[in-house]
Amino acid sequence: MNWRIPAIVATPCFIPALCGQDCPHYFFLIMSIRVRFAPSPTGDLHVGGARTALFNWLMARKSGGTFILRVEDTDGARNTAEAAAGIIKGMRWLGLDWDEGPEVGGDCGPYFQSQRKDIYDSYFKKLEDAGRVYAEADGAMRFKFSRTAITVHDLVCGDVTFAPTEEPDMTIRRPDGSYIFHFVNVVDDIEMRMTHVLRGEDHLSNTWKHIDLFNAFGATPPTYAHIPLILNPDGSKMSKRDEGSAIEHSYMNAGFLPAAVFNYLCMLGWTPKAESEKLSREELTALFDADAIHSSNAKFDLKKALWFNAQYLRELSPEELLKHALPFLAAKGLAWTNDTMAAAAVHSVREKVSLLTELPEWVHYFFREDYPFEADVVTKLKAKPENAGLLKAAAEQLALAGEWTEQGVHDAVEAAAKALSVKPGAMMPLLRFALSGQSRGPGVTTIAHLIGKEKTLARIERALVEVMGA
RNA sequence: GACCCCUUCGUCUAGCGGUUAGGACACAUCCCUUUCACGGAUGCGACACGAGUUCGAUUCUCGUAGGGGUCGCCA
Fold first, then answer.
1. In chain A, where are the structural domains located?
2. Which of 3.40.50.2300, 1.10.10.350, 1.20.1290.10, 1.10.510.10 is the CATH number of A375-466?
3. ipTM of the complex
4. What CA–CA distance (Å, rounded) separates A416 from A396?
5. Distance CA A38, CA A196 (A)
């Protein structure tokens, strides 16, 4: 494809007086890229929309251009302020910031279409003056199509030519005077001086209508890039109820890290030229190329999304991890006074989980003394009568430990094992069970060290009495 | 029904006329190991089909099938 992102645009010489007729010169204008994400606030931010926003953001950030957020709330019956707020919340969570739009303002505002009626009225007038509109019986206004062949030059799909249409002229204004999507979308793309439009492929079939409108206004259409859709694993269209579809519900509240979702979504429909798929926001920005976006739809894969999340989770520092885990721990009623200890606790199990929501079940015993003992483990341990003695011996040796470090704990257990002629490996599971009530978790020495000597001994005593019948 | 887009392992994909068709996720096995994991190694596994172009097609063209999308006073 030849139409690269025109950060530099060639335009024929516009001062023929200086050069004479048919002058061969071109001026190279540096045109700043302006892109937008234009959601309609009818519901939560959807993965498809999020990725569209992401690609637009990437394009703007890479080129030093401008990313605009425009809320397309022309349908009073369906749009809600809550939905608009939710979309903004989701974008902020993903780390997408905009240069113009709600909350930040800009020269082309307002950025809610519901507040731009005057602008639309004046554009509508232009169409009226050009004789391109006519009224229906009930007052709705239609735009007279040019009914010529129209070619869409698309960064992703190439040249797509639509034959002169046989569809009825499209309605652009309702009887109540409010305007329809196709009209306001084009008007705003002109008014906000958009240079590129990256949007879902579901819009491709309608793009000729938009170009017809641009032509009617005597405006140059932006460069389009229609990106493929994200489908369910079974290939069906993803809708609100489907797993993984809503940013807030499926990701924010489900224990995903924004960076992981950001990364995963980028891999759906675009492959950066890099060794690894795990790439930071900065790397993705540097690598982004709208021309390299795929033209085929992609199916959503939760397993891979989880893998990305696990990767990001385990490289967080203890403090960062605790910060992200906080709401999820609190939701399970876990509380603490020592942040350093809590951070160390969650950090000790970072390689065992792929979602923040899994954290509580892995660390709850760090924060309370009344943790339950898992039934099947109880049965298993009681089956061997010598276990109580082993545990008691370990406790006695632990009580003698001088320095309460992981090494110190380890040495004590080793000494106790040696005295009874068993391997430390025979004692560790018993201790793990006593200290956590579970059969899995971080290293036993890590648990003991983190909860301290006093609690370690008390917990063993409790297990001995309550479970082992000692 | 009309029009548009798409089609490589189960999934995301690399490939841009000649490759043992590569990688990642998932799955399986082994190693590591006090558990669960992590990590390492290995394995499993694909060019939708049919014509054509060509010395040679996964790659180019056409057709078929399949999937998706659009045809709203929704966006």
1. 1-31, 33-230, 318-366, 375-466
2. 1.10.10.350
3. 0.96
4. 8
5. 13
Tell me the CATH number for domain A318-366.
1.10.8.70
CA A131 to C1' B41 (Å) is 73
Catalytic residues of A: 240
The burial class, CB within 10 Å (0-12 / 13-18 / 19+), for A163 is exposed
pLDDT classification of A92: cutoffs 50, 70, 90: very high
Closest C-alpha among A205, A231, A202, A304 to residue A261: A304
- pLDDT for A470 equals 64
Nucleotides of B under 7 A from a protein CB: 3-8, 10-14, 23-26, 34-38, 67-75
- Helix, strand, or coil (residue A75): coil
* A34-37 vs A141-143, strand pairing mode: unpaired
Query: What per-residue confidence (pLDDT) applies to A6?
Result: 43
Give the residue whose CA sits closest to B39 at C1'. A351
Length A277 CA → B9 C1' (Å): 18
**What pLDDT is recorded for position A18?**
47
Fold of A33-230: Rossmann fold (3.40.50)
Task: Name the residue with the least CA to C1' distance from nucleotide B26.
Answer: A303
pLDDT tens per residue across span A178-191 = 999 999 999 999 99
Query: Does the pLDDT value for residue A25 go beyond 80?
Result: no
Q: How far is the CA of A273 from the C1' of B12 (A)?
A: 15
